[in-house]
Recover the amino acids of this structure.
C-alpha cells in the first residue's frame, strides 16, 4: 500500500507541474492577439495610430489622433467639425490592399489642444497590418462646408506617389511652388508642370514667373468669363490652368525656348 501511495502521489505531482505550464502557454498565445500597437506623432509622422486586434490577430479597428491646422479652417474660432474621413490599407512594391474611404464611427475634438481623435472599425476585410492612412475632415466655417486637405500617416504620401503635389501640405511650408519636368528635348527642358500655393485664387490674373533669373509674365484666370489672356511670353507658353482646391493651382509651361538643362531657381508671384 505504501508503494501504491507513493506512485499515485508522484503521478499527481507530475500532472500538477505540467498544468500551470500549459495555462501559461495559453495566456501567451491569447495575449498575442490582444495587443494594441501605437505609433506616436513625431517629426516624420503627424498622425498617431492605435491598432486594435481581434482574437484572430487581425485588425479590428484603428484610432487616429492629429492636430487640426489651416488645412481644415481659416479661423478655428468660426469652425465646427462635422466628420472625419480616412482612406487606409497596406501598400508595398509587390502587393497592396486599399480600403475605400470610411467615415469615423465616432470622433472627438479637444477645443483647447486642437487635437482630433477618431475611431474607424475595420470590417469586411482581413488585415494584420496597416501602413497607409490618409485622413481628412469635413467642417463648417462661415456657413460653408469645407473638406480639408490630407493629414497623412507616416510615409503614406510617398507610398501613393503624392509627394510635392497639392495634397502634400508639408512640402509647401517653406515655399509656394514645386515643379515637375514633363518633357525633355535634345537635353534641354521643354515642358514643366507647376503646383502653386496661393490665396484668393478666384481673383488672380497676373502670373509672374522667374526661371533661372529669366522673368516671364502671363495673364490668365480660373474664371470662365476671363478674356484678357496672355499665354505667350518670350516664346514660352502658359497652359492648362487648374484650380486644385481653394489653396492650390496647377499649370503647365512650355519653356523649350529658354534652352536650359536644369532649373536652379524658380519663383512665382501671383496677383
Amino acid at each position: 500500500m505504501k508503494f501504491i501511495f507513493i506512485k499515485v502521489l508522484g503521478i499527481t505531482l507530475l500532472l500538477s507541474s505540467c498544468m500551470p505550464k500549459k495555462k501559461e502557454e495559453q495566456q501567451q498565445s491569447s495575449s498575442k492577439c490582444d495587443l494594441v500597437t501605437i505609433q506616436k506623432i513625431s517629426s516624420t509622422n503627424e498622425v498617431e495610430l492605435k491598432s486594435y486586434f481581434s482574437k484572430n490577430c487581425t485588425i479590428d479597428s484603428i484610432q487616429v489622433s492629429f492636430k487640426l491646422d489651416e488645412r481644415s479652417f481659416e479661423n478655428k474660432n468660426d469652425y465646427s467639425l462635422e466628420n472625419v474621413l480616412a482612406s487606409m490599407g497596406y501598400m508595398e512594391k509587390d502587393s497592396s490592399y486599399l480600403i475605400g474611404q470610411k467615415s469615423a464611427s465616432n470622433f472627438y475634438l479637444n477645443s483647447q489642444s486642437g487635437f482630433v481623435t477618431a475611431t474607424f472599425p475595420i470590417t469586411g476585410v482581413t488585415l494584420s497590418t496597416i501602413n497607409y492612412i490618409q485622413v481628412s475632415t469635413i467642417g463648417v466655417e462661415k456657413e460653408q462646408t469645407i473638406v480639408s486637405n490630407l493629414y497623412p500617416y507616416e510615409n503614406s504620401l510617398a507610398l501613393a506617389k503624392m509627394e510635392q503635389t497639392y495634397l502634400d501640405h508639408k512640402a509647401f511650408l517653406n515655399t509656394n511652388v514645386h515643379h515637375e519636368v514633363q518633357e525633355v528635348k535634345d537635353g534641354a527642358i521643354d515642358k514643366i508642370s507647376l503646383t502653386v500655393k496661393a490665396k484668393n485664387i478666384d481673383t488672380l490674373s497676373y502670373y509672374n514667373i522667374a526661371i533661372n533669373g529669366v522673368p516671364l509674365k502671363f495673364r490668365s484666370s480660373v474664371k470662365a468669363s476671363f478674356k484678357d489672356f496672355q499665354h505667350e511670353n518670350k516664346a514660352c507658353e502658359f497652359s492648362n490652368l487648374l484650380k486644385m482646391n481653394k489653396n492650390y493651382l496647377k499649370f503647365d509651361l512650355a519653356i523649350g525656348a529658354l534652352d536650359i538643362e536644369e532649373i536652379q531657381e524658380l519663383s512665382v508671384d501671383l496677383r
User: Anything to note?
Assistant: Confidence is low (pLDDT under 50) at residues 1-30. The first helix runs from residue 2 to 32.
